[in-house]
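Provenance and format

Records in this collection were gathered into a single text stream. Each protein contributes a sequence line and a token line. The two records reproduced below are adjacent in the stream.
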Amino acid sequence: MIADTLGHLAPVGLAELDATAALQTRRDRKYVLDVAECRELLAGLDPATRVLEIDGARTFAYESTYFDTPGLDAFHLAARRRRRRYKVRTRTYVDSGTCFVEVKTRAGRGVTVKERRAHDAGPAELGAADGFVDQRLTAAGVDAAPARALAPTLRSAYRRTTLLLPDGRLTLDTDLVWTVPAGTRHGVSGAGPSGTAVRLDGLVVVETKTGGPGPSSADRILWRSGHRPDRISKYATGLTLLHPGLPDAPWRRMIRHRLATEQIPEGHSRPDPALGTAVTPILPSAHLAARTH
């Protein structure tokens, strides 16, 4: 659907995209759309919008591994909406094999600050990046456990298309799968075993990124159609879907109104050959309601 809709847009290369709109300090707004809603958004974009293209490809595979303490300190800071919250993750660009370790913190007025460096260790370990993580969290005023106490807690995999708008950036994430990494250990009530996974089916996570407080042209299109930003975090939302015992207050409305877990009879879970594990599909709530009534 995305490829068909964006086929007429001119390409932009990675170097120009980064030079024009790297936006490591930015304001993010996220929306969870079904296919029809996403198509409507894309059809209304400024004709000057360009799409990231590398070696003829316009959609790329991403994998992120999130790190947290055994007590899930980073998650609970987000669940309690603390201003000094943070995320630590590795991000792998699967097509090129390039990996970075990233630290995300919050500045004033809801601005997100992302700092990263190239990462030579495996994506499921921080290795020599411990010092970088500690330095960045300290500089941001975050009272966090030392990086050596962090361990892999959640893995997300998805495909991303990136658009350069005249006034910002827009990313479209599809085929999103959250997985409990092998060897994960934490004290979560109802925690699923390593390898447990959930997948978003028929949904697109749309994120607008601007350097200032004002909305982008894509935000305005969505607002005119009645959409408002959804509270969704690839880390926190994925963790609550995999571990129902966790507090989910900031994301509860979005989960209940936009997402629905497809009911799979016991003993009939669906194996995903790409993951080597059983996957629980997450569908648009309206879609599931229409199928079951």
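Adjacent record:
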Amino acid sequence: MIGSIIAWIVVGLIAGALAKFIMPGPDPGGIIVTILIGIAGAFVGGFVTQNILGMGAGGFIWTILVATLGAIILLAVYRLLTRRMA
């Protein structure tokens, strides 16, 4: 249980950092928001690949790529929402 939570945090950190690297810019939040966007991105990416594209889970690299894609989508949505509120 604790090991899987730590694994999700590590995957989220990697995915969030990659998303931030691909989409640089000033974002409110910091490392915690980056990790949360990465974790949520893993869920979004997993949902899209499994339910919409019909692709199953792969190895670690595939998981990072899917999580990063989801994190990029969520980061773009996050930026749109924070711009509208500001």
